[in-house]
Amino acid sequence: MSLTNLERMIKLAEEVFHVKNDPEQLDVDENVIKRLKKIHPATISEFDDGNGPVAWVLLIPTTIELMNKFLEHKISEKELFNQTPMNTVYEALYLCSALVLEEYRRKGITKKLLIDAINKIQKKHTLKYLFVWAFSKEGDATAETISKLTSLPLLKRK
To answer: 61 near 92, Cβ under 8 Å?
Structure first.
């Protein structure tokens, strides 16, 4: 029996990020999703082809202070999420993750999800920076493209 799109997306997330073996990373569960949606409804986006999700994007709006701590390895991804205050002005946006099933890659789905989400977040928050902790050359290239399209400087965690 073949896996559903949802099952394939979960498997892909585990393969790419190995979050269960890395205490630095944010392990996304229902509580994390609820808090992200409280921060801003556009923090989580997905594209569904009618048979379940084929692409997911997760963003974390935060403060410049927390962005800098994260980029300097003073706090982990998990701490970035937990320390991000609620109901404040966010000036930095962490491009946390983007996953796309293989047969849907290179079709502009991630780019559209990211641009739409950023535009929605910018209606309430004056973003000054994007930042990323890239796990792949594709992730790095996507972040660079989004930076160019939004004219927001991109900072990278090494």
So the answer is: yes
CA distance 62 to 81: 8
User: Model-level pTM?
Assistant: 0.90
Most confident option among 48-52, 56-60, 101-105: 56-60
What band does 1 get if pLDDT is binned at 50, 70 and 90?
low
Q: How far apart are the first and last CA of the chain?
A: 41
Could you count the other beta carbons within 10 Å of the beta carbon of residue 151?
6
Helix axes 137-150, 109-122, angle to 10 degrees: 50
C-alpha 141/C-alpha 83 separation (Å) is 28
In total, the chain counts a number of residues equal to 158
**What is the distance between the alpha carbons of residues 81 and 73, in angstroms, rounded to a whole number?**
14
Q: Is 154 exposed, middle or buried (0-12, 13-18, 19+ CB in 10 A)?
A: middle
| Residue ranges with strand state E in 36-76 | 44-48, 53-62
pLDDT at 96: 93
∠ Cα 125 62 89 (to 5°): 35
Tokens (6 digits) for 66: 């927390």
Rounded CA gap, 80 and 70, in Å? 7
Q: Could you tell me the two tokens for 99?
A: 């996953």
The label of the residue with tokens 């896996």 reads 3
